[in-house]
Amino acid sequence: MQNTALKSQEPVHEHEYGEHLERKLKTRHLSMIAIGGTIGTGLFLASGTTIHDAGPGGALAAYIIAGIMVYFIMGSLGEMASFIPISGSFSTYTSRFVDPALGFAVGWNYWYNNAIIFALELSASALIMKYWFPDVPGIIWSASFLILIFGLNVLSVKGYGESEFWFSLIKVATIIIFIVVGLLMIFGILKGHAGGFENFTKGEAPFKGGLLSIFSVFMVVGFAFQGTELVGITAGESENPEKNLPKAVKQIFWRILLFYVLAIFIIGCIISYNDPKLLSADLENIAVSPFTLVFENAGLAFAAAAMNAVILTSVLSAGNSTLYAASRVLWVLAEEGKAPSFLKKVNKGGIPINALYMSTLVGMLCFLTSLFGDGTVYSWLLNAAGLAGYISWLSISVTHYRFRKAYVAQGKDFKDLPYKAKWFPLGPILATVLCLIAMLGTNYGAFIGSKVDWYGILVSYIGLPLFLMAYFGYKIVNKTKMVPLKEADFSRN
């Protein structure tokens, strides 16, 4: 059933300021935002570590399992966001279909996560620029990129969408070129690799360390996929969300999985899992990125400089997306009375300006904590954000289960759903289990051995008690209860 409030240029969430968010994001923006949100340093740099630790087959298995989890999470989010397309979507859905207290905790958790990651990307940009300008103070670059990213977000939502489209296109083009070059090398058409598929099966490969090693890298791989949920945040600002969101959700999973699985397969064939260089790739050593090594083996001498530029693009893309997500989630929290009311203000360009200012300021302050002292405060903040992505995914799966149960309880027609998630209820149940495994296993090593590493446990899991404090604090103060299925709010604006 078509809802006239969803027409492409109509406002979203009118309120006392008289302004509104605007529907300016097209299908191509949504697809690239979701793809760009997940393709970054997790693939370009961390993929080498996963292959070294679990072998090429183990790394592939971990990526496929994580990909299945993401598939079901994206299906759940796609079903809810296409039916109720509002900005800051999943925290609002959690409030409507599970418990307002849980929605409060999920919303603030996701805002905090993005503000911290924004600070992380500012730090990363300075490290990357050292490759070309080793004598320029890093804070100069971080400040410059802060201004750039803020500028892209403050102009208009279309400006954000357009910049993210081009950032993501560069990353996608790089991966496609990498896959083509790698396959040509494996089959002997290009020089640089004479072993065919030998590296994939030699020694302890393809599964080094067995099941436990797959489990150990699954956590790293899961973090690499985080960012796909961003497409749900954009729902309230997309043109014709009933049509465009399902299309974006259907496309991104297969593209991402194809990119990741093929890229890991090629790296595993060309570079031996026991090559020590695979453990050395980081932002300060782009020359040993698995992508750089493969390009150099193919005789492309400029590979390190080119990959440095691509990784810089990834970092700017991540900063761009996290600032966007933080501002929208903070705005919707204010709309729902879960954050100060001044954060509801939207300017004439459709930007939640005060929420953007606040998110930028907090991100900047977190970044500054990494510069002073020994960075201990920033390290704790970063660790607290570590579980936040999984908490968001977990909330999406749990909320979708309740969404569908409420939909049936209220006698609604499934024909009215623009997109129906596959394999319900198995999908959200399986995704919930995998999320819990990943969360609880984030630092399982701290529990193993003759002595429990309590400090390691505290550092790794600090985000969980913070989340629970927000949940129980709101619940006790506001005396909230789980929303009865027949009273769940399906209003679409």
Question: Your description of this structure?
Answer:
This protein is mainly alpha-helical and 493 residues long. It has 19 helices and no strands. It has helices spanning 27-38, 41-44, 47-83, 89-97, 100-129, 138-155, 157-186, 198-201, 210-225, 230-233, 241-270, 290-297, 303-335, 353-369, 376-386, 388-409, 426-440, 454-461, 463-478. It is globular, with a radius of gyration of 22 Å. The model is unreliable at 1-19 (pLDDT under 50).
Give a concise summary.
With 493 residues, the chain is mostly helical. The chain is built from 19 helices and no strands.
| E-strand count | 0
Q: Report the C-alpha radius of gyration, rounded.
A: 22 Å
Order of helices and strands: HHHHHHHHHHHHHHHHHHH
Stretches where pLDDT is under 50 for at least 5 consecutive residues are 1-19
- What's the shape? globular
Mean pLDDT: 82
In terms of structural class, how would the helical and strand content be classed?
Answer: mainly alpha
Measured distance between first and last alpha carbons = 14 Å
For the biggest sheet, the summary is: none
Considering the chains and any ligands shown, give keywords for the structure.
mainly alpha; 493 residues
List the helices and strands and how they pair.
Layout (H helix, E strand, L loop, with lengths): L26 H12 L2 H4 L2 H37 L5 H9 L2 H30 L8 H18 L1 H30 L11 H4 L8 H16 L4 H4 L7 H30 L19 H8 L5 H33 L17 H17 L6 H11 L1 H22 L16 H15 L13 H8 L1 H16 L15
